[in-house]
Amino acid sequence: MPNHLQDTTLLNNGVKMPWFGLGVFKVEEGQEVVASVKAAIRNGYRSIDTAAVYRNEDGVGQGIREALLETGLSREELFITTKVWNSDQGYESTLRAFEESLRKLQLEYIDLYLIHWPVKGKYKETWKALEMLYRGGKVKAIGVSNFHVHHLEDLLQDAEIVPAVNQVEYHPLLNQKELLVFSKSKGIQLEAWSPLAQGKILDNPVLQEIAAKHGKSVAQVVLRWDLQNGVVTIPKSINEKRIVENADVFGFELSDEDMASIDSLNRNERVGPDPDNFNF
């Protein structure tokens, strides 16, 4: 059970990944994302999650460089994730897209590279490219995002390397129990995007009651629930106070009863697209 912001989970290839990180989806390129990344690293975060389609890799890279100068940390102490977008999927195009992400981030390697969505007829070729990048040492770990169980089963039929991570929409309204069990059985680390359901759960009375009992915010309770379920979490914020508050989830523990109450909120309700019905 993670007890500190810099605690890590061991991925299936032996790489250490922080349990907690900063997501930058919809964070504006330029000063907004630079400030957000710097605030997170300054306040103890070591993991930053971006993607080609977020169009803010340049700013993330700048934020990282400035934060390293400011804090005296080394690049090796950070864990940086980015993702290949749907229109770049396929073998050669994925290799090109990766080089472009590396150039924008101005990094020598990426810690985790993900297939952003399971584009039908393309994700297996894309995975071969990721395996090649991994073997070449440019990526420390490779994984997928938004893959259902059936996508993973299909990928694993031909994959030489088992994905280290599957990053999916995950929150109390969509607790992905089947996917969580399957992922654990295959040694794939589940990671939550949109862990707060884009704010839709913050006024939930069950969560408010549990939060009041622990003297915590609803957001902190939900992020703690992620961690206690063994799920890596990457809440997004551009507000330094909120970035700090989000990470203050290591000094308390939810009881089995709390966990069950939160589990019972599941409605299989998404705030983002369903990977099976996504307009690729």
UniProtKB/TrEMBL annotation:
Ligand binding (substrate): 116
Segments forming domain NADP-dependent oxidoreductase: 31-266
NADP in keyword set: yes
Pfam families, A to Z: Aldo_ket_red
Key words, A-Z: NADP, Oxidoreductase
CDD domains: AKR_AKR5G1-3
Catalytic-site annotation from UniProt: 54 (proton donor)
Superkingdom of origin organism: Bacteria
Molecular function GO terms recorded: oxidoreductase activity, acting on the CH-OH group of donors, NAD or NADP as acceptor
Gene3D superfamilies membership: NADP-dependent oxidoreductase domain (3.20.20.100)
Residues at the site labelled Lowers pKa of active site Tyr: 83
Family according to the record: Belongs to the aldo/keto reductase family.
Protein name as annotated: Aldo/keto reductase
Species annotation: Cohnella faecalis
